[in-house]
Amino acid sequence: MGRRVRVRDQGIGSWIRRRARKTPHRCAVVHRDLRYTYAQWDERTTRLAHHLRGLGVRRGDRVGFLGANHPALLETLFAAGQLGAVLVPLNTRLAAPELRHCLTDSGTSLLVHAPAFDAFARDCPVGRTVPVDDTYEDALARADGTPLDESVSRDDNAVIMYTSGTTGRAKGVVLSHGNITWNSVNVLVDADLASDEVTLLSAPLFHTAALNMTCLPVLLKGGTLVLEESFSPTRTLDLIEEHGVTLMFGVPAMFQQIAAAERFDAADLSSVRTMLCGGAPVPPALIRLYKDRGLRFLQGYGLTEASPGVCLLDAENALTKAGSAGLPHFFNDIRIVDRAGDDVERGERGELLVEGPTVTSGYWGPSEENEAAFADGWLHSGDVVTQDEDGYVTVVDRAKDMIISGGENISPVEVEKALFEHPAVADCAVIGVPDATWGEVGCAVIVRTPGAGATGEEILAFLDGRLARYKIPHAVVLTDALPRNSTGKVAKHRLREICATTAPPRPGAAPNTGRAVEPDDPGGPAR
Prior knowledge:
This protein is α/β, with parallel strands linked by helices and 527 residues long. Helix content is 29%, strand content 25%. The termini are far apart. Pfam families: AMP-binding (PF00501), AMP-binding_C (PF13193).
């Protein structure tokens, strides 16, 4: 037998050490009053890896993180990576039952969490928890700082990111070290990031776009991360001036709020080179507004399953190709096919398929959606697109019923299942309707059980604590029957007409700000 060749650590867990040996004294991360150089951050992540190993974490184990943007989130990612373990970043906006599903489904064995979520952590289905408080810092101070050299390949799993599915409950997308590495390379090639980037991260890192499209590519280049726990347009302008921010990521609603801030016109934005936007098409007027300030505005289209970058619209064509998703990333390939799976002609509609080293190998655990989503080795996006003569892709419809509100994916099936638990709901359907601020918001059309007197508001209030607030519909219509076609399926086009003409906005509906809610906010985990 031949001698087994040992694989050294090729994963993202080694990135901080590799960066520290090149630029040890460069600032890696800023959070409030904290500043760590790459050398300091290398030591912290290594010590955390030793601490987690002392708590029993081994290769392949899942380690969860629950909290807003904080150095500890990234320290947990890199420490888990050094051990060959897998990070499960949790959406702080989910309700407690949704969080428990993610933890149980992934088999998470240890949860690192912000102190604000102590109550949830005490009752969650995880045997070991690590609060990010003084005890966290004490543990790092006592832990071994000797460099680890676990055998981690780029084919090993690095992250499981939960995303809403069309069949209901969230499903875990498994991203390997290689998927994330190649996505970062795509970003560096197509967005042309520099080694002196200073990126403002106020979009939540538990989402793949903020983590993989800006945070990790900037680290790979040796830039600086400025971490913010939540988004504020006024504070964004302050931080740009204070830290000389060169790059920031956001969804369209965030950039709209920044532009609407009282001191936007007077703010010093001279340091900013690039605004990277994703989650929904950007209105041309908003692009023009930022271009008038001399800023590059890049628009991305992606899927969690693709780590997430699929296409990028360059700044030079942001207006001439307005509404387009852009060109495929450098190392991605696409096809546009008809229902028979045959390629369509340029200009014709078809489903977008994606292939490349950034595409996940599948969903975590047994999933009925794996076979359909990855047929013939291509990721089936569920998005209907066209491609013009220059190769630019434009999304024209969604084959799936997913609602995308302020960059958040909402599964209508999941919301409908929750509504059916209310005794007054005999039948219901949820669709997305256009919204000037969030792109789309949910509208629920409900048929009440005979004799039920519950109001629409009372039925929606029932969802508080069961679903994240951003998933709760912003409007409700009570009707005698749902419109159906000859085969008995709900006629979604008729629902859109009904919601457009009769649905009032839900009084007091929580705006979908794209921020991580505070734990006392009803949108956070139940306490």
